[in-house]
């Protein structure tokens, strides 16, 4: 949560999509990072829980707004400078951003934390005019989470991530450049996941399975090379 909040544009309104219990907005408001937060969730339960948490924390109700609804569809264009979408699959995050272009076109920065399919999300962002300006890893319980910060490519003044190859979408070079302390553990996790896939298809025959085994064996070799360079 702290790392997500560090990527938010300070002093401007933020929106937390799929806010769950409102923990991120509470941190942003309590620490004076933003003056106002909008929280949305497609389910009523999380909205009610977020409301209870915000009021019990003593935060001023004039500094936040709770909205029941789907993604960015319930927001007005220009209402938030930063949009946070965390704890969802990469494909769902992609659909939320691309499904409401009238709103997403007015957002200055997206702070995204995909639970899965991060490479799919990066590809979609790049194909639709966004630049990735930040990559970092964070520990959440027993897992390593990826936090992606994106801005409109034609508007950003920040250093933009470059992805020269397919593997770079999977394991971004910016993590090396910034010497992310969780990178070794992250790489070992990716290697373990690849090995599980290989083990699951080791007894299956046919050209398609041979190609899949070859791909994942190659991926493990690439990860080992990365680990040796750390």
What's this entry about, in short?
The protein is α/β, with parallel strands linked by helices and 230 residues long. Helix content is 43%, strand content 21%.
What key attributes describe this structure?
7 strands; 230 residues; single chain; alpha/beta
Question: Would you give an account of this structure?
Answer:
The protein has 230 residues and is of the alpha/beta class. Helices cover 43% and strands 21% of the residues. It contains ten helices and seven strands. Strands 3-2-1-4-5-7-6 form a seven-stranded mixed beta sheet, with helices on both faces. Helix 4 runs parallel beside helix 6 and helix 9 packs antiparallel against helix 10. The radius of gyration is 19 Å and the shape is elongated. The relative contact order is 0.10. The model has no long low-confidence stretch (mean pLDDT 94).
Helix percent reads 40-55%
Low-confidence stretches: none
Beta-strand residue percentage:
15-25%
User: What is the averaged pLDDT score?
Assistant: 94
Largest sheet: 7 strands, mixed
Which assembly state applies to the chains in this document?
A: single chain
* SSE topology string: HEHEHEEHHEHEEHHHH
Total count of strands: 7
Q: Which geometry do the CA atoms define?
A: elongated
- Give the C-alpha Rg: 19 Å
In what order do the strands lie side by side in the largest sheet?
Answer: 3-2-1-4-5-7-6
Number of helices: 10
- Structural class designation: alpha/beta
Distance between the termini: 27 Å
């Amino acid at each position: 949560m702290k790392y997500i909040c560090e990527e938010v544009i300070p002093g401007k309104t933020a929106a937390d999509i799929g806010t769950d219990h409102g923990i991120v907005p509470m941190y942003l408001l309590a620490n004076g990072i933003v003056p106002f937060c909008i929280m949305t969730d497609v389910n009523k339960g999380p909205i009610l829980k977020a409301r209870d948490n915000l009021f019990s924390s003593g935060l001023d109700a004039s500094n936040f707004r709770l909205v029941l609804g789907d993604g960015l569809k319930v927001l007005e264009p220009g209402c938030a400078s930063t949009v946070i979408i965390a704890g969802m699959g990469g494909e769902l995050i992609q659909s939320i951003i691309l499904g409401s272009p009238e709103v997403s076109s007015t957002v200055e920065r997206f702070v995204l934390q995909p639970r899965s399919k991060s490479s799919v999300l990066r590809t979609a962002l790049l194909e639709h005019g966004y630049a990735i300006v930040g990559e970092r890893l964070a520990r959440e319980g027993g897992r390593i989470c990826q936090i992606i910060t994106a801005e409109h490519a034609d508007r950003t003044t920040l250093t933009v991530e470059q992805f020269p190859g397919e593997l770079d979408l999977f394991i971004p070079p910016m993590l090396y450049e910034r010497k992310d302390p969780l990178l070794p553990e992250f790489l070992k996790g990716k290697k373990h996941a690849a090995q599980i896939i290989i083990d699951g298809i080791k007894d299956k025959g046919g050209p398609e399975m041979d190609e899949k085994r070859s791909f994942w064996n190659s991926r493990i070799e690439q990860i080992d090379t990365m680990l040796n360079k750390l």
